[in-house]
Design brief:
- This protein is α/β, with parallel strands linked by helices and about 400 residues long.
- The chain has 12 helices and 13 strands.
- The protein folds into 2 domains: about 150 residues, 3-Layer(aba) Sandwich (Rossmann fold); about 180 residues, Rossmann fold (3-Layer(aba) Sandwich), CATH 3.40.50.
- The strands form 2 sheets. A 7-stranded mixed sheet has the order 12-10-9-8-6-7-13, sandwiched between helices. It has a 6-stranded parallel sheet with strand order 2-1-3-4-5-11, sandwiched between helices.
- Helix 2 packs antiparallel against helix 5 and helix 7 packs parallel to helix 8.
- The protein is globular and about 60 Å long.
- The relative contact order is 0.16.
Length: about 400
Amino acid sequence: MKKKLLSILLSTAMTAALLAGCGSSAATEEAAATEEAATEETATEEEAAPAEDTADETESTETASEPSEDGYELALVTDLGTIDDKSFNQGAWEGLKQYAEENSISYKYYQPQEGTTDSYVETIGLAVEGGAKLVVCPGYLFEEPVYIVQDEYPDVHFILLDGEPHNADYSEYKTGDNVMPILFQEDEAGFLAGYAAVKDGYTKLGFMGGMAVPAVIRYGYGYVQGADTAAAEDGVDVEIMYNYTGAFAATPEAQAMAASWYQNGTEVIFGCGGAVGNSVMAAAEEAGTKVIGVDVDQSSESDTVITSAMKQLSVSVYDGIKAYYDGTFPGGETSVFSAANDGVGLPMESSKFENFTQDDYDALYEKLVNGDFSINNSTEDSTTADLTLTNTTVTFVE
């Protein structure tokens, strides 16, 4: 994949897009004690990530550094799923953790008890109370919580991934000077994955998403259109099974559905929904079939993963935090990461393609950057019924 550290490009985008930074919080031992008590009541990271006490815990799943005198300066509040989901939460956490450790800044993550606005707002409050000057909020479901807390904590800065702050009924969108919303063109990442899969010889594909939220919908829509584009070029017909599980967890039901697809001829499934991908991988391992990962390079998760539709999550978080400490944190407008600034792509160095080459990828990527493909990334109809396809049949599974 084309690899440029997004720092230079992001700083250019930041010049054009004002985004937001973060504030301070409790500094005394009494406040720290209060925060620890509240943490137990609201199921934050200690409760949700017992792996921190196990011997085989990986570095990326550590819950916190040693606190400073003022507590934990950098914080991440997880979206649905866990911090070690090898996907969205973990990608964001790794960017925060890397910057914090390189610059000796205290850090910690918090896990809400529920995926609700109230729970997210409460957990963000715990992070602020615990000393956070900047809070990373990864996921579309943080749009309303960040809309609320940007005014409650005007001295705290927020990085919001995959969303823009709005009120409950979407009647008002407002991005404060202390908020940096970051969006990704998941449709482009999905397009690359679908196109490459068909060019590599796969004609029976699957898409298993988590919740039908905009980011997941865009991934799927790009995937279908990329597959159809490659199929039209090669004069082949493609079939795609398509489903949203309704959650971002690994479940027996998701694994059973993936297994049934594989048994009925599906060759590769795009597992697009955090730990949903683990269910797909488990089914693929049993069936001897293939998987496409999501958000980050998931090749280390299973030998079945042939590639991953990636966002540069860790880089975007790292660069956003760096901008905050450099005094150039953009606030008030949205940054978009796309093929044009190497914000999405496939990890070709770890991909297991047999026919699709690096040269093929480079040529495809250049066309994407140049706007040679018209990708429908609408999120109004999540079923793909609104897509115009020539060589692809999609079976949407309720």
